[in-house]
Design brief:
Strand content: under 5%
Oligomer: single chain
Number of strands: 0
Largest sheet: none
Shape: globular
Distance between the termini: 39 Å
Amino acid sequence: MNFESRTLMADLVFSSYNLLPVLNRFGIRLGFRDQTVEDICLQKGINKDFFLAIVNTYVDPSYLPSSGLLEFNPLLIVDYLKRTHQYYISYSIPRIERMLDKLVNSGKSEKMQLISKFYKEYVDEFFIHIKDEEDNLFPYVEQLVHNEYDNHYKISTFEKVHTSLDEKISDLRNLIVKFLQEDYDDNACNEFLIALHNFEDDLKDHARIEDLILVPIVKKMESKLS
């Protein structure tokens, strides 16, 4: 079931606590009482339909925004994606690194060092991916909004290089679950794996928002301006 404007905001959180960081990216904090999604969006000056499209995309992998919902101002999406990047950089990645250090220090084996190396290489690739979107994709969308069409970059360029960052996270989880045999701290390992799993899910949702909402809107703008 998808969320609607009359859904109580508290019920939205109760149905999926993974939405809490998403709400924070909209500047929404707890203390909803019996207010609906529409009530909160009105108070915060948030586009209600855009908010619903984002949260429904997060909780339902099969959710597709209707054609009417694809009329959003793309700057809303760019702003949301930038806030998500900042959340990853300032919170998710450092938190997972702290958990990894705790796990590695609990075993100090060669395999632990391999896991640490794998993760650090992944983080380097992750930051390159984010920098590319911040330096190329987002400025391009902002140019289109201002009716400036640039033949040197197209959304198809982004689609070609838009790699799935969650796949390497999955590889790392598999490596640990299937092959980690030496002494290690059980709780530290469980904590690290659960954090990785949650991060992987967030990345999948993030990619769906780009692919299902941003890309169709930008293609439409390109068609009008070319």
